[in-house]
Specification:
Length: 246
């Protein structure tokens, strides 16, 4: 049996690669034959990866990050816009400063990283995968800024897919359910909250970073060559509906 190496020779840029889903994806892409640029504001990359420290909400740092990738490898085939933060508050509770920071990190970063990467993809095509969330396609209480940012990413993904299809650039996003990462560590420290969250996922468990990484790998690979503009739930059934009897 021949083992399929799905990203052989591909150059993959992963933001937010220092932990959680980003780190799992960077490791998986490298295992599948890619040369990985692992970017994060605070980073301990896995071995064999090119590490770039960058605040991806800052235009100058994003341009420097992309230029470093081009200088090292000559091109970028795959961009995974994964960096993000979360704040759990309602609109009335939300400070203006925290609102702006969530939008900057979660949405502006996708705009900036895509803006400066796309010109390097236009001659030969490529794949961009954006990190959205189930809260970007269905309502969840107490997440005004975060839900807004992820809904914006879903909309931006569709527009980018239309704008750049002519260049062979596919643009999709993944919408994870509740996943065990540093971003959810505070929430998951409460056993009662874990039980409630788990019950919302029909498959009976929370997500793991590797679950999301596998979906990103698929969308990055040539196996997804005819897929663009998709918001893919990777959520254990969270968005399928209510799992309890009524």
């Amino acid at each position: 049996m021949i083992e399929l190496v799905r990203l052989a020779g591909k150059i993959v840029l992963v933001t937010g690669a220092g932990s959680g889903i980003g780190r799992a994806t960077a490791i998986l892409c490298a295992r599948e034959g890619a040369r990985v640029i692992a970017a994060d504001i605070s980073l301990e990359p896995a071995s064999g990866q090119l590490a770039v420290q960058a605040d991806v909400s800052d235009s100058e740092q994003v341009q420097a990050m992309v230029q470093r990738a081009i200088q090292e490898y000559g091109t970028i085939d795959v961009l995974f816009n994964n960096a993000g933060i979360a704040v759990r508050q309602t609109v009335a509770e939300q400070s203006e400063q925290d609102w702006d920071r969530v939008i900057q990190v979660n949405v502006r970063s996708v705009f900036l990283c895509s803006k400066y990467t796309i010109p390097h993809m236009m001659a030969r095509g490529g794949s961009i995968i954006n990190m959205a969330s189930v809260v970007g396609i269905t309502g969840v209480r107490n997440r005004a800024a975060y839900s807004t940012s992820k809904g914006a990413i879903v909309a931006l993904t569709r527009n980018m897919a239309l704008d750049y299809a002519q260049y062979g650039i596919r643009v999709n996003c993944v919408c994870p359910g509740f996943t065990e990462t540093p971003l959810t560590r505070g929430l998951l420290s409460n056993p009662a909250a874990v039980a409630k969250l788990t019950a919302l996922h029909p498959l009976g468990r929370l997500g793991r970073p590797e679950d999301i990484a596998a979906a990103v790998l698929f969308l990055a690979s040539d196996e997804a060559a005819w897929i663009t503009g998709v918001a893919l739930p990777v959520d254990g059934g969270f968005t399928a509906g209510h799992a309890t009897d009524v």
